[in-house]
Write a structure and sequence with these properties.
Sortase, Chain: A, 2 helices, single chain, 249 residues
């Protein structure tokens, strides 16, 4: 005859609350994994599509430059490049080259920093709350923004820049070579004065010819803003072969 196991040897019976807690834990874990996969896919997909759009637009801009008759840009009495025709929102004006972010790094420069513009994998020129000065203007701040993650992630490695690094802006008729003077690792995303004509927090105390690059920080968030400031070192006319300045060779 079978003997009954002692009470202490019997398998413990799970209570309904324990079962519910276990099921909830499994559900939360599965949800977390699915969300992580969704975010990863979204970043990858927006990077892919934005890079494709920016590549096509870059090719069209360069083809337009090639089709136009090469001419030396006019200069004003001070020797600086005269302004080209005004660019409207959404217009492409050239390329930003940043050697510190990788060999051959370049990003298309487009007027505007609205969501739709930056989603195209470009760096946008601020038009509000301050209207950025163009590189060829006698003074002002050429302020730019780009996504750090997703949508091409053109400024993902902006934190690699340090004082002394070159920044080169390429337009149809001219190269503008800047030098990084200072960086601001973190500030409020509402701190718009970092792109002022004389940026607040920068080492500059008087008007000049500056460049500012901004993006979100830390990575994969939009909690804060970081900024990189530089000043113009020199500009040089574009030759027919579009020979890059020494900083890009």
């Amino acid at each position: 005859m079978a003997t009954e196991r002692p009470a202490e040897a019997r398998a413990p019976r799970r209570r309904p609350l324990q079962i519910a807690a276990g099921a909830l834990g499994d559900l939360l874990f599965t949800t977390g994994v699915l969300l992580a996969l969704l975010v990863s896919y979204s970043l990858w997909w927006t990077d892919l599509t934005a890079t494709r759009h920016a590549g096509l637009a870059s090719e069209q801009l360069r083809q337009g430059w090639s089709a136009a008759a090469p001419t030396a840009p006019p200069t004003d009495p001070a020797g600086t490049a005269a302004a080209p025709p005004p660019f409207e929102a959404g217009g492409d004006i050239g390329f930003l080259h940043v050697p510190a972010m990788g060999p051959g790094y370049q990003v298309l420069i487009r007027i505007g920093t609205d969501e739709d513009t930056l989603a195209e994998g470009v760096t946008g020129v601020y038009t509000t709350p301050y209207s950025a000065a163009m590189p060829w203007e006698a003074q002002g701040n050429f302020a730019l923004a780009a996504h750090r993650d997703g949508h091409g992630a053109k400024f993902h490695d902006l934190d690699l820049l340090k004082p002394g690094d070159p920044l080169v802006v390429e337009t149809r008729d001219r190269w503008f070579v800047y030098r990084v003077d200072a960086t601001l690792p973190e500030t409020s995303k509402d701190d718009t004065d970092v792109i002022a004509p004389v940026p607040t927090g920068s080492p500059y105390t008087a008007p000049g010819r500056y460049i500012t690059l901004t993006t979100c920080t830390p990575v994969y968030t939009s909690l804060y803003r970081m900024a990189v400031w530089g000043s113009l070192v020199r500009e040089q006319p574009m030759d027919p072969d579009r020979t890059p300045p020494p900083e890009l060779r």
